[in-house]
């Protein structure tokens, strides 16, 4: 995974991107993804869209490209510096998206969506480090596994009981999901063509570039 998007979200009525901190009584506490890292309360009525759950439509109605994969393709082609911004011309923006998703749906992906994508990539690449998957895997492989000590029957029973207790208690730093931020009744229906409205991402067939 090139950029960690799990805790990052776009919030309706609030410019830029935000990191979800924790749920609050009347909304969710968020931190702006910029130099100031300002913390504020996003009201419960605002729609919260996790970047990790957003996809881009393709010409195959059964397939979408997850935003995480889109960001990976952009990085591999252009690096951390995006060649376009939200102020680029229509031709530059459409050529940019076609360069990373040749089969994107021209009818359902609007120019405003591409502008949003360019803006989001610029923010994330500036404030989140790119993670090399190969390096992460290598580090995991090089770490020797500690030999497991043989447990007595009494110790095994005690550890099993503790594990069951831990499983029933949520961790204090557990990532916040949209389910805890905004209820189904609060979510406004998204307009057709918006990448935020895409169905949950299915595994895409990558095109040769």
Automatic annotation (TrEMBL):
Pfam families with a match to the protein in the record: DUF5606, DUF6852
Origin: domain of life: Bacteria
Domain DUF6852: 54-123
Gene3D superfamilies, per database record: 1.10.10.1650, 2.30.30.730
Region (Disordered): 135-209
Domain DUF5606 as annotated: residue spans: 5-51
Amino acid composition bias (Low complexity), ranges on this chain: 135-150, 162-174, 183-201
Name of protein: DUF5606 domain-containing protein
Lineage of origin: Bacteria, Pseudomonadati, Bacteroidota, Cytophagia, Cytophagales
């Amino acid at each position: 995974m090139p950029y960690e998007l799990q805790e990052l979200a776009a919030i309706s009525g609030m410019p830029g991107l935000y990191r979800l901190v924790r749920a609050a009584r009347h909304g969710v506490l968020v931190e702006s993804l910029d130099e100031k890292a300002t913390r504020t309360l996003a009201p419960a009525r605002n729609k919260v869209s996790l970047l990790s759950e957003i996809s881009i439509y393709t010409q195959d109605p059964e397939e979408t490209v997850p935003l995480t994969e889109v960001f990976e393709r952009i990085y591999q082609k252009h690096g951390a510096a995006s060649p376009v911004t939200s102020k680029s011309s229509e031709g530059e923006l459409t050529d940019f998206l076609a360069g990373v998703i040749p089969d994107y749906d021209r009818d359902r992906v609007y120019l405003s969506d591409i502008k949003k994508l360019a803006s989001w990539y610029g923010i994330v690449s500036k404030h989140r480090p790119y993670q090399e998957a190969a390096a992460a895997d290598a580090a995991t492989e090089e770490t020797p596994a500690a030999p497991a000590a043989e447990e007595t029957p009494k110790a095994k029973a005690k550890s099993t009981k503790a594990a069951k207790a831990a499983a029933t208690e949520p961790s204090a730093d557990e990532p916040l999901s949209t389910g805890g931020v905004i209820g189904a009744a609060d979510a406004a229906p998204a307009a057709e063509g918006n990448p935020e409205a895409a169905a949950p991402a299915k595994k895409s067939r990558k095109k040769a570039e």
